[in-house]
Structure formats: C-alpha cells, structure tokens
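ugh ok fine here u go
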Amino acid sequence: MSSSSEPRHLNNHQRDTLLQVFGHPTSHNIEWQAVLSLLEAVGSVDQRADGKYLVHVGEEVEVLTRPRDKDIDVQQVVDLRRMLTSAGYGALVEDLRAKGKEV
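structure:
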C-alpha cells in the first residue's frame, strides 16, 4: 500500500473508524458494526459456527468476539491497532492526520 495517497477502497466512514482505532486517548465509543465494515474493506472476515469472527488482515489473523454492547472494548482496540499496524495502516493514519483528518 502506498502511504502517499488515500486508498480508494476505504470510504469516509471506514477512514473515520480507522482514525478512531488509532486515537489517543483510546476511544470507548467505537461501534462493532463500524469495525466489521473497516475489517471487511482491508481484509477478510468470516463468521464461525461458534459466533466468533475469523479476521485476516495482511499476514495477521485474529479471532474476534462480538461485544455484548454495540461498542468494542479497550483490549479489542489494542488488538486492532496491532493488527492494522502490522498490515501498514499505521502509516496511513499518520498520512491522514498530516492532511488534517481527525475524527
């Protein structure tokens, strides 16, 4: 992925979710459905028979559990940051911020 331009495969809502995931302090208001949309855009998401989600982003593979509420918890944010950083999306977040994009 080129860090010099915004990827066309992310819509504005998905870019906002990406910025929320990398935000400091950690947001407690990141909706599960928004996260699924982002993950489907940057990788693949398969719901397993046990109700958990198998997520592939770049070389990373995670099993995520849908939260009881609509928002993901802090540990899920940490796991997503690691996964997305490994896939090169940390650099994209820095590019977006340098262009003045914030949530």
